[in-house]
Amino acid sequence: MTLNDALTDVNAKARGALPPEIFEVLEADRRRATGTKFAEAGDKIEDFTLPGADGTLVSLSHLVADGPAVLVFYRGQWCPYCNLTLRTYQQELLPELTARNVTLAAISPQKPDGPFADLEFPVLSDVGSTVARGLGLSYPVSAPVREAMQTLGTDLEQFNGTWELVHPAVVVVDQDRALRFVDVHPDFVTRTEPAEILKSL
């Protein structure tokens, strides 16, 4: 089963578990047209320093010190699609990247909230979405989606400090901070397959 097959299964279970009116709002959000210009391969990313889930500061220059880095932008720990994706990358991608001397790190707009117990790569907090915004990934949550999320008990203002989210994305950054691969998913149920990331390297 591919990662996206597993994510489709999660979404099918959500359809059965959520009130229909809530699910339809979230489904409509998946299908929206963004009209946003995302960063592209060949662009440069500014150096940054972000806190890890345990408060430790990590810079991009540190992540690419010994080779390229794979940066995974995700919505937050409250997102089941994100959690499945990160754990899949842990299992299927991290060993391959380690063998190639490539660093893996995940970045979300969520406030530092303690480490993922079972992840062995940095999980960084881009509070205010400064890094994500520079790549065109950040966007404000619409009023209907905000209301639906609040109904489900997900208060982004509490988790992130603002009602702003990021499009899930994977970028590969070389040691000169140039983007060598960019894959953005405005449809938050879909993600970059591990094989695609390895192929990009």
TrEMBL record:
**What Gene3D superfamilies does this protein's entry cite?**
Glutaredoxin (3.40.30.10)
Q: Tell me what reaction this enzyme catalyses.
A: a hydroperoxide + [thioredoxin]-dithiol = an alcohol + [thioredoxin]-disulfide + H2O
Q: Does the keyword Endoplasmic reticulum apply?
A: no
Q: Which Pfam families does the annotation name?
A: AhpC-TSA
CC terms in the record's Gene Ontology section? cytoplasm
What the entry lists under PANTHER family is as follows:
SLL1159 PROTEIN, THIOREDOXIN-DEPENDENT PEROXIDE REDUCTASE
Family note = Belongs to the peroxiredoxin family. BCP/PrxQ subfamily.
Q: Describe the function of this protein.
A: Thiol-specific peroxidase that catalyzes the reduction of hydrogen peroxide and organic hydroperoxides to water and alcohols, respectively. Plays a role in cell protection against oxidative stress by detoxifying peroxides and as sensor of hydrogen peroxide-mediated signaling events.
Q: What is this protein called?
A: thioredoxin-dependent peroxiredoxin
Origin species, per record, is Amycolatopsis camponoti
The record lists the lineage as: Bacteria, Bacillati, Actinomycetota, Actinomycetes, Pseudonocardiales
